[in-house]
Amino acid sequence: MKKILERIEEELKESFAACGYEERFGKAVLSNRPDLCEYQCNGAMAAAKAYKKKPIDIAGQVVEKLKGSPAFSLCEAVMPGFINLTLDEGFVAEYMNQMAEDGRLGLEKAKEPQTIVVDYGGANVAKPLHIGHLRSAVIGESIKRMGQALGHHMIGDVHLGDWGLQMGLIIEELRDRKPDLPYFQEGFAGEYPEEAPFTISELEEIYPAASRKAKFKPEEGREAGMSQEEIQAKEKESEAFAHRAHLATRRLQEGYPPFLAIWNHIMRVSKADLEKNYGNLAVSFDLWKGESDAQKYIPDLIKDLEQQGLAYESQGALVVDIGEPGDSKELPPCIVRKSDGAALYATSDLGTIIEREKDLHPDAYIYIADKRQELHFTQVFRVAKKAGFVSKDMPMSFLGFGTMNGKDGKPFKTRDGGVMRLEQLIGDINEAVYQRIMENRTVSEDEARGTAKLVGLAALKYGDLSNQAAKDYIFDIDRFISFEGNTGPYILYTIVRITSILSKYQELGGREAEGVILPAGSEAEKGLMLQISRYQEAMEAAFVERAPHKICQYIYELSNEFNRFYHNTKILGEEDKGKQRSFIRLIALAKDVLNACIQVLGFEAPERM
Questions:
Q1: Integer Cα distance of 474 and 266 in angstroms
Q2: What rounded mean pLDDT belongs to the chain?
């Protein structure tokens, strides 16, 4: 189904062509003066330069041809050459009926569907998800869902951090705590236990303890009242432990069976916990690949870079220049191997790209991470294209997000200054919503808890997604859970209000899907129709621009238009049954569009609030 903007432009192009001008001037945009018109065309201004005529004369000719068009109730040429357009109520109503009858609400599938890999999440195994993981998860999930709604094959990959030094730290800390485990017995020839020697809670405590042990700082000792001798002994102990951890990491990466067995335990326990916590955010991944999966490709990719003459030694490290003509500033080379022979994140990401090309054959890549990683991804993308790991015209986009800050403008922390676990953040916002619901005491506690989970998730995800991804924003629970203003709960409350009206209509013997949508009889009704009609434009623009906040803005405006219509119209009290059926069909369509949009944003509405 064509977008309403396309229908408008068809009329304009025909009129420009009929007047002897090129069709390309028949472009329309939403009016920036809604008090004067609904859409406007500025094509006469551009045509005036091409045809050496006055813009107002060209606009006047086009308007004359547009008269009698079923699409417009008003079209006029105004100085210096704008064409103001107001849509005909019958034309808009016809479009509403077509949307209501279409199983996809008029949303067209991509004519050439693509396979697109979305790399988001970026969690580290053996560490709990914290608030720093929120933005990548919810932004990535929404972009994946947008692409799916438009008919693309979207592949979401969490890309776990599972192969670095943290593994060696965990192994050596486990050795210190449980030295009798078979993994640490030289010459052990039996089968390793199927059950992990730790729970997720123990694992999440082991890693930070090991990290602290490997990074002892003298000032910490002085603050604890330790003597100089004790501090020196502790420093040696710390250095020795860090050395052990590096050796354990290397042995793991070389395939040492006992350490691989521990690693497999870590992966199983962590993945189960990560799936649960991502599930609480309504975030899911098609692939649970990690850095470890890329390791087998690294030796050959290094060799390839050297054989092509792209990689060269610099201060002991192996690097690839990435500078290109037209760069506004000098970009540092990409280090693909450190001086000690170790691979880096860039090497791992390049190996991952090679694996994805081999297994998935994607048409495009989208990476979502903190905006401070922009240089890293610029380096990776350029090396991948320079080396021919992907084609030179492969679309590879990086969407960098800003920081979630507290009310003090600094990165959001717990009350005692620590990094808040995502689980706790979700719990806090659910509890705040529950208390807000229970203030009215119109539902049972069990229902209130269930509703609070749905509304809390909407508050959290909408609070994040309604901001432009690249910008920092203030995390304000009180504002996010408000049932008024540009918030998730306000959107849900609008949907619930429509659901309530439709239920009452059915109780009175009516049927939601009967009748047709009639031409608008009021400004508020037409405003609602016009906003509904822009659904496909909003969805397509949000996906092309990788901008979930555009969906949020669209449904906020749609909710406002519905509530204006609701307050100005007696829907259930309307005596003209034809009109009433039209109202019901229209608000049911509004509800369907709102639900389609929040599904893309990754949350759902309760039956009542």
A1: 35
A2: 95
Given this model, what pLDDT does residue 346 score?
Answer: 95
Give the mean model confidence (pLDDT) for residues 458-462.
Answer: 98
- Domain end call among 71, 87, 103: 87
Using alpha carbons, list the distances in angstroms from residue 296 to 352, 360, 566.
Answer: 10, 17, 61
For residue 489, what are its two tokens? 């709960």
* Predicted TM-score (pTM) of this structure: 0.94
* Residues 156/118, Cβ–Cβ less than 8 Å: yes
In which band, very low, low, confident or very high, does the pLDDT at 223 lie, cut at 50, 70 and 90? Answer: confident
Give me the sign of the Cα torsion angle 226, 230, 232, 233: negative
CA distances, 578 to each of 89, 230, 510, 515, 517 (Å): 16, 88, 12, 7, 9
405 burial via Cβ count (<10 Å: 0-12, 13-18, 19+): middle
Instruction: Provide the number of structural domains found in the chain.
Output: 3
Do 591 and 483 sit in the same domain of this protein? yes
Radius of gyration of the chain (CA): 30
DSSP β-ladder status, 364-370 and 334-337: unpaired
At position 552, the amino acid (one-letter code) is: C
State the DSSP H helix or E strand holding residue 345, giving kind and residue range, or none if neither. helix 345-359
In sequence order, which residues have a C-beta less than 8 Å from that of residue 179 and are 6 or more positions away?
A: none
Q: What domain range includes position 238?
A: 165-280
